[in-house]
Write a structure and sequence with these properties.
about 350 residues, mainly alpha, Rossmann fold, Tyrosyl-Transfer RNA Synthetase, three-stranded parallel beta sheet, 14 helices, about 10% strand
Length: about 350
Amino acid sequence: MTSFKPIVFSGVQPTGNLHLGNYLGAIKKFVALQQSHDCIYCVVDMHAITVWQDPVELMNSTREVTAAFLAAGIDAEKHIVFNQSRVAQHAELAWVFNCVARMGWLNRMTQFKEKAGKDRENASVGLFSYPNLMASDILVYRATHVPVGDDQKQHLELCRDIAQKFNNDYSERIADLKLGVEMMVGREKINGYFPLTEPLIEGPATRIMSLRDGTKKMSKSDPSDLSRINLTDDTDAIAKKFRKARTDPDALPSESAGLAGRPEADNLVGIYAALADSSKDDVLREFGGRQFSEFKPALADLAVANLAPVAGEMRRISRDLTYIDGVLGDGAAKARTIAGETMGHVRDIVGLLQD
Ligand code: AQP
């Protein structure tokens, strides 16, 4: 049985300050996966404009996220790094997926509801159809695995639904054109063109929470800078933000079950575990019974040890715009080759005449 070549795809939006959640939930995993997979990492600028972006800041942020990828250790020579808008096939396939996905599916997306808020009528159409573009980002490379934070789980499920409906709607045509790859869907063996992509959402840092409110995700758009550790924060800022992080008055428990109902403690222990490449139980074996006044400085030291080299390298790379633009241009050329082949197949499958 032929099967899909394992390919990793993921993206980060150039929408402002990259933070510890982006780093631990996504970028750190991107780096690790390079050892075992062919990886494609994208700065998703077309997703960014689903809400208003200042044009000059958008260009700066696109380069800044690229610098963060490179500074964290992504190898743009062996793998592919580029910005989404340079590869037109993302938008082209997204249109086909606009015609495959159902309104009801998109209506259920919680991120749209959160981002559109009460003023739904005034949200852009792009914000609503964002998950279709995300499915296209992934499937235009027929990527099999996507490392993301837990907040993206629902979008990945939609991506699988789109792939499955496309494979199903066009099954005869895919077979006639001999473009199918055999795969198991449940117990059924089918011949599909798109893989049912697996999310990689693992480890203690799948959802890093705000330092001011343990029930809210750490986010670029939170108005309080104290809510997040930015990748570019210096030692003093990191120490101050952890010192001011909200906690409860109790000492740390000795095992992770004791974190239930203590969202802020759970979050800080999870951050420590992710930074130390260990587990919450390991962290609590060391710190169980101790007060936050002891734990927070240790956490700040560990964060600085992890982030300072990345921030320093980011600053160095950010000064060399020619280098960054070269990486993005070369990456886009490599990406276009793969995406162009997929779109050629998709046009044939769907019945769109082409040159
Ligand atoms: N708090 C988080 N914990 C773990 N992972 C996270 N990610 C984002 N926040 C956390 C993961 O980072 C990757 C890139 O995210 P993104 O920038 O494309 O979009 P986002 O999820 O919308 O990020 P923000 O910070 O929440 O931005 P705003 O405030 O603009 O909405 C994704 O893999 C995401 O899961």
